[in-house]
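Final report, Chapter 2: Outcomes

The project's central promise was a pipeline that accepts a single protein chain and returns its three-dimensional structure in a standardized token representation, suitable for archiving and comparison. That pipeline is now operational. To close this chapter, we reproduce one record exactly as it appears in the project archive, with the input sequence first and the structure output second.
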Amino acid sequence: MLDLNTTCLSFFTIILSLTSIFYFLFLLLSDHPTKNPCPESYPIIGNLPGLLRNRHRFHDWVSDILSQTPSSTLQVNFFLNLSRGICTANPLNIDHLLHSNFNNYIKGSRFSDVLQELLGDGIFNVDGHLWTLQRKIASHEFSTKSLNHFISDVVNSQISDRLIPFLSHACNVNEVIDLQEVLQDFTYRNISTVAFGVVVDPAYKSSNAGFFKAFDDAVEICSSRFLSPLPVIWKMKRYFNIGSEKRFKKAIQVINNYALEIIMFKEKEESNTKEEEEGSETRNQDLLSRFMQSTSTNMEFRDEEHKRKFLRDIIISFVMAGKDSTSTALTWFFWLIAGNPRCTELLLAELNASTSLLHYHELKKFHYLHAALSESMRLFPPVPINSRLTVDDDVLPDGTHVGKGWFADYSAYATGRTEKVWGLDCREFKPERWLNGDGLLQPPDHFRFPVFHCGPRMCLVND
């Protein structure tokens, strides 16, 4: 008579065999042909082994496997086929996803599931009417000269009053500093002033600093959600309010309380200003004040609670877009410049040739500086990979099939490292590739350089 262990083993073997048979039958009967299967995909377990093995170097891993495919596009299959999609670094496909067939590729549940608590219905997390409304308001504000000058004044003030004195002192006393931390502090102060009109000092244990600490925690946890091979794990942690999800819930509470506090303060400030300056067009220049002004006459925001929720979501979205992305871009820029002394000399020569203070529109004359920044972000884009959700079945320009409900990722990081796009020297830092024969900056092809995204959702500051 067979013992219990042998019986269990036999039963498990039968179940596994039947599962494998049904899996292959499913693929045979329902799978659409694709030109670009994933090089590291296996039956049943999909890409899980490769993801777990390369989680510490995720973006380089994606670049490596994309380089092995015929057209820099691959099909992605997660564990038990619970999620399927494609990932591409092909400029033609990126054009198709973000521009030519824009309406078929949305943010959808892929973003809202992960970011809803943090971004709510903010511009970077929604589609349709909500996105159109916010884009219209934001586009108008970002096109005004007054906002451009306000941002320029804030940045110049932070550079002259804090950043340069700090760096000068560190040089004078031969102090070793962590440049990334210094630049994070710099962007903290800039984005808080531009977004709220309030200078946040992360060095002090105030409610302001608590907001940014909570914000950093929330962003980190959202990133881990995106990279989770089994989303059901973080969703269960959220349901039982344990581990990182418990910490996330507390962080969101801090963010919401601070945002509401600032909004109510601004409402009171604006009310007092109206009473004191009846008929005057004077207004605060920060983003929150501008959005409050824009929504004050909009019939969609008659309900005060609805209006405050809208303001909270859109401002938090812009903080997310401007804070870490700027410090990340600057950190990589200085790291690359430090390793290329020739580029440093050329940059200094260009900057020393200017005799005036640097203002927003005057920055356009620094062609080599612009080229060096573009080259830095080509190699190290602040947002290395982005994603969309497919509304209906589609075929990409390279012939890859994309199924309804699939995710469609595009990797700016991998695109910048693709030889077919940037040549054999694609991994080298060469600002000259951005300049023409006269040393003038050449406008980039956004689909070869999707750092600021492309199409209707292109970054407002690059629109």
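Archive annotation: The chain has one domain: 24-462.
This record, like all others produced under the grant, will remain available to the consortium after the project formally closes.
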